[in-house]
Each structure stands twice: as C-alpha cells, then as structure tokens.
Amino acid sequence: MPEHHSGTPSTLSALESFLWHDFGTEPSDWTAWMDRVWPEHSAAAADSFAAALHLHGVLRSMQEGHSGGQKGKQPAVYAALNQLIETAGIRPRLDKAGTLSLAAAQAADPVARLLLIVLEALRSGRWQRFKLCREPTCRASYYDASKAAVKIWCSMETCGSRNKMRRYRAQQNVQT
Ligand SMILES: [Zn+2]
Q1: What separation in Å is there between the alpha carbon of 159 and the centre of ligand 1?
Q2: Taking a C-beta distance cutoff of 8 angstroms, is the pair 89, 106 a contact?
Q3: Exposed site from 53, 95, 148, 160, fewest CB < 10 Å?
Q4: CA of 138 to the centre of ligand 1 (A)
Q5: C-alpha distances in angstroms, 119 versus 47, 115, 146?
Q6: Distance 94 CA to ligand 1 centre (A)
Q7: What is the pLDDT of residues 46-101, one digit of tens each?
Q8: Gap from CA of 162 to ligand 1 centroid (Å)
C-alpha cells in the first residue's frame, strides 16, 4: 500500500499523504510529517496536533461513506467538519481580480490548509475518490484515480489478491 498513487492530482498529494498516515497518539509523527511535507508550517506543528488528529478522524469517517459504509454519511460527521471549518476561520474571499475563493483566517495553520484542500476537493467532486481499502487488515486510505472510480482496494497487487486468495480458500473449505 504505497503512500502515493500515480494518478492522484498533484494538488491533492499532501492530503493523500495526510490521510494515508496513521499518526498515533504522540505528536512526534505529526511533527515529522510536517517537517517533510510542509516545512514552512513546522513551527505550528506541535500546537496543531490535537486538531490534526480530530480532522484525521472526521475525514476517515467520511471516507467510510465513499467506501460503501453508512457511518460516514451521518449528519454528525458533517457537523464535525463544519465545526472544524468554523474553528479554522475559513471564509469566502474575493481576490484582486474579483475571483471567489476560500481562505483561512490563520494562513499559517496547517489544519486550516488541509481543510481548504478538502473543501476544494468537495467542490470539484474529487473528495469522493478518497476511500478506505476494503481489506479489513489494511483499511489504508487511497485516492481512486480509476476512470469510473470503482476501486475497492488500495492495491490490486497486495490487498486485492489477498482477498481473492481468501475467497478461494473459503470455497475450497466448503467443497471439502
Ligand atoms: Zn489495502
């Protein structure tokens, strides 16, 4: 299960990496991730750890909904995302050319930056493509770049074939 898939748009690669990571309960993994992916936000890393974990959990819940689960489609999940948007101070803005976009009150906040990427992905319809692997022992986050967005495993080579093998064995057991 690779961190990055070849078909993921470059604008989504930081989000792809964030969702793929399992940050654990100590801030060290989060600060290391920040040093590597967004070194310009390193100073804010330790302070944003709790909010980052919360965002990670909310987004993974939403991904359940993209992967066939019902849990991710509950209003409470959307309410949690709305709360995060509120906390980050994300508002619509017009730039000098009059183009409408979303911006965060705290531009140096990495959680706000991640949220802006999620919101842009929601707007473009790409957010639906962030899924969780169906293989129960994997559950990795991945971006489904396939044309019809019908992938169910993070990787056909690993989880897809593992699943096939298990089904094959189960059939053999039934037959004997
Ligand atoms: Zn997998």
Answers
A1: 5
A2: yes
A3: 148
A4: 5
A5: 23, 6, 21
A6: 41
A7: 899 999 999 999 999 999 999 887 766 789 999 999 999 999 999 999 989 999 99
A8: 9
